[in-house]
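User: Modeling request: complex.
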Amino acid sequence: MNELHYQVDLLRAINRKQMERERMYLKVCQVAVGAFLYVSFERGQITTLGQWSEYFPFEIKEFRDLELLLDAVDESCLLQMGDVIYPEKSGRETADMECLLRDGRTWMQFRTRVYYNEKGKPDEKVIYISDITKLHAQKDELTYMAYYDSLTGLYNRNYFVRLLGEYLKRASETGCIVSVVVINIDEFRKVNDSMGLVVGDELVRQFGAFLKELCREDIIACHLHSDVYCMAIYDPVGNKSVSFLHRSIQERIREPFYLKEGKDVSITVSMGVAEYPEASDAALELINCAEIVVFKGKACGAGTLHYFDAPVMDELLHSIELENKLKKAVYSKDFVIHYQPQYYAGNRRLRGVEALVRWKGDGGELIGPTTFIPVAENNGSIVPIGRWVMEESIRQYAVWKQQFGFPFIMSVNISALQYKREDFVDSVMEVLDRYQVRPTELELEITESVLIEDFRSVAEKLRLLREQGVKISLDDFGTGFSSLAYLKRLPVDTLKVDKSFIDTVMTDSSTRVITESIINMVKSLGFEAIAEGVEEEQQYRYLHAIGCDVIQGYLFGQPLPPEEMESVFSDLLQ
Ligand code: C2E
Ligand code: MG
Ligand code: MG
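Assistant: Request completed. Predicted assembly structure:
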């Protein structure tokens, strides 16, 4: 009897433990994010647990109900779904898949485990199902970001380089050519400045969308950065060639782009081409070469198409060599300054001198600034060069003022990079202070490009300098933007009419009309007008007659080394 009691107690205890465990599993299933399906083959039992009812509008009570899952998924997943619901049919223990439901939006992950008995027959099966729609969307976004540019929908630079690499590999096997074309919207900055960044972005987007239309098999496009795009053509022939691309683009841009808020804009674009194998056999280098020619081409005018060929390559090597030599020159200060006098047109008295830098080459020859200043502006060495010119010309001025006893104006050319520096105003004032030169004896020459780039911050710095008495002169006037409305807002004292006007002023009547109206405009705004590059007496007389204040040019004096300038000063004193 005791034995029986003991047996019953034991059974009860086991039962209680089992029920506790069952309750525990039920709770775990409720908390777990997902639905479970448990199948016992032995007992012919099938149970759904967890969030089943939130996931599916049907219950599964019998084996054949499992087929309902097949109806719930998108057709594209049907084949694989069979394996996930019935892995035991092929003797497998596990089966996993991500599948799209029939609604076309929801993604579910299925994980099935089958447990076999020692005879190899399936005993139990568990299917775990979880909603991974959010995860999928994030994955899609990440994939998109990895391959595409979000503004234009074109490939991004990284993925484009990879695809171009594949073109090059294929071309190395087939002997085909690959053309890499860099495309740039001309004067894009003006669109951004005048219409705002949102409209600028819209233009970049629309032009990108147009380039996408030109893509097909063996033609790909990407948005490199800002307003620069790149396309690659594998085996360019016929209507798959660079000239076909060029024609298609030209045709499109004949029509304006209709941007937001009723704003439309007409553009021109410049293109640069580099080809495998001629220019390089590496993807990045080809893009670089094409970019070099597109921006080099721009110097010859907007809307151009240029190829990277042997002469361009030579020039590039030359400029690299020049750049290296220039770096050394900056270090050892291998520069000199020549000074060119400026005279008042009326009484021919000295107004001032312009400091013009020269580089002392290896063989002692002097290299002109038009050769090396663009290189120095490109690699940043214009900043130390400019600082040296400023210091040396002011030091020289202080010496001359003491030696000859009369004040005049020292004009110094300043590059955009110098203005952009935070400490620009302080550094100018510090040098003036050090050599005890009055701010009114210094004039800074700037070009319009400086102002177009960053008007507000440059104008603020110029205003600060003018407050101290430093004169500001706008160099090469007439070659750039030069609108009257914009002139009014400029913090300048002097305008230098570019030499290109003076060159033809006596021979071309339309240049005469323009020059006269520039001088009139300058006078009406209260600025001083200087004519640059005056070589002939006739030009001087004419310029004087139309009211030009100051004359600078070979007629009255070439740029001279300091010692020769000193004899000019001595002559002036007599
Ligand atoms: P710029 O400031 O417009 O200087 C005038 C240029 O015209 C000088 O050329 C001068 O020698 C030349 N020139 C003056 N009168 C005549 C003439 O009657 N006939 C002819 N054919 N040419 C004349 P340069 O010295 O070769 O300087 C060229 C440019 O280099 C300058 O143009 C200026 O933009 C830049 N530059 C010169 N020195 C510096 C400098 O220290 N810093 C910066 N950032 N740029 C400089
Ligand atoms: Mg100048
Ligand atoms: Mg000039």
